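hey so i finally got around to running the thing on that chain from the lab meeting. sorry it took forever, my laptop kept dying and i had to restart like 3 times. anyway pasting the input first so we r on the same page abt which one it is
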Amino acid sequence: MKQVSIEEAAENLSRYLEIAEKEYVVITRNGIPAGILIGLADAEDWWEELLLREPRFQERVARSRQSLREGKGISIEKLREKYGI
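ok and heres what got predicted. didnt touch it at all, straight out
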């Protein structure tokens, strides 16, 4: 993980985007973390990032995990075993 000031990130954005494809770049304001620059190695990664931040998706994942804890549903391991994945 790399940490840079907001001024440095702004002046060299292209460079830090390249770095962000390999590791998180924490952007600071007055030495305090203010954001994270996440590089996308592939344009399709954009959709995954959007989905992961979607509140309805997060809620659905939480409900699914709760169901598994209650013994309902099927785990990903059992699903893979069932279909030979």
